[in-house]
Amino acid sequence: MRRPSVLVVAAALTVMLAGCDWPMFGFNPARTGFTPDTSISLSSVASGSANPAWTGITSGLVEASAAVANGVVYVGDNDDKLYAFDSAGNTNCSGAPKKCSPLWTATRGGGGLGLDLASPTVASGVVYIGASVGLLYAFDASGKTNCSGTPKTCLPLWIAPTGSRLVWSSPVVVDGVVYVGSDDNRLYAFDAGGNTNCSGVPKACAPLWTAETDGIVRAAPAVVNGIIYVASGNGKLYAFDASASFANCSGTPTTCRPLWTAVMSGGVFFGATAVASGTVYVGSGTLSPSSTGTLYAFDAAGTTNCSGTPKTCKPLWTATTASPPSAPAVASGHVYVSEFGGPLYVFDAAGKTGCSGTPKTCAPLWTAPTGAFSQESSPAVANGVVYIGSGESTSIGQLRAFDASGTTHCSGTPKTCTPIFTSNSNFFPMDSSPAVANSFVYIGEALGPGIAAFHFG
What we know:
Blueprint: H1 9-16, E1 34-35, H2 42-46, E2 54-57, E3 67-69, E4 72-76, E5 81-86, E6 93-94, E7 99-100, E8 104-107, E9 121-123, E10 126-130, E11 135-140, E12 147-148, E13 153-154, E14 158-161, E15 172-174, E16 177-182, E17 186-191, E18 198-199, E19 204-205, E20 209-212, E21 222-224, E22 227-231, E23 236-241, E24 249-250, E25 255-256, E26 260-263, E27 274-276, E28 279-284, E29 293-299, E30 306-307, E31 312-313, E32 317-321, E33 329-331, E34 334-337, E35 344-348, E36 355-356, E37 361-362, E38 366-368, E39 380-382, E40 385-391, E41 397-403, E42 410-411, E43 416-417, E44 421-422, E45 435-437, E46 440-445, E47 450-455
């Protein structure tokens, strides 16, 4: 069985994220939602056009988040296809306003749900994406191998079946292994190269190992320093070993038990965990806008506030939101999280400012409106700006941007902030989260249909 070596975070990120792409949901394997891309400034956003520079046309609704790599933006939509567009909006684009046709497309099987929240991940020339037919797909990211026709369509390099109809978890690739969750209450690890445990024509792959959870896994796994963190729909956070020591794994086929777990007050149905500076951040709640939500911060090492056999952990601190929170973004000592039909919240990542009590609870440093209608867009942070998709009604939505420091357009006690940028209300990004890369911000148009690209260069 293939065993991944210990991840050296700095080296891996340097290779994967060269050119300031946005290759997966949450930007990096730690899912921090923060990119070092400095191509967009606060002032250029404030003076930017409220209309997209171009729109990519799909045949279904885009509620999943996009990935950007090597001049191509990839997005899945509700017609069970994967689309690849020229990220600069040049090739296959025309008209005013500019509309773009895809460079190539790929069919992921017909789930028949009319809903698909699977986000793609790009690594080492391969784009990975789940589907509502219980499969993980791997396609040639360049649109060459297994691709033909006019317009060009692509067949997968390989597929990997899981035990559930739904694979909506965003994959993560680290050290030659692709990890993805499934609705069969399992985390899966496959050979990212499509070699080990793979055979047949078309090629199908069996997992290197699996791990059972207490609920469905639609949240995106995060990997940092040889540990995989993933949350389940039953409200548990799990930490599994992905290092060379391969602790707590045995059997044929190989199954793994967690290094530690943590119990939360609600499930984690979408989004992701985010890991930064030795802390794991995750939001939980129920799929009801009338319920409250909670943001949790745990010791990533599984030491502080952890005990017992098997080991369980209690949070370092928590914060209450009015409804279930999105995947967190972490940048410059702050944690940013939106909520199901409510504002953007910003907390002290260290759990100090605005925090008190035993157990410790934290109040937000500031909040900002993102619209009253339900949406699950997660924040993205780049060069002092935080971006979020908003929902104004069932037919109106916007891309909004705020000063990430909570300074510009902010006032009052408690502090609230208004946007430095608001797009025209010509689309509704219900679930899609922004992707920031090379002077563009990309976000899905749930009623477009398509993907909108805003240019702030």
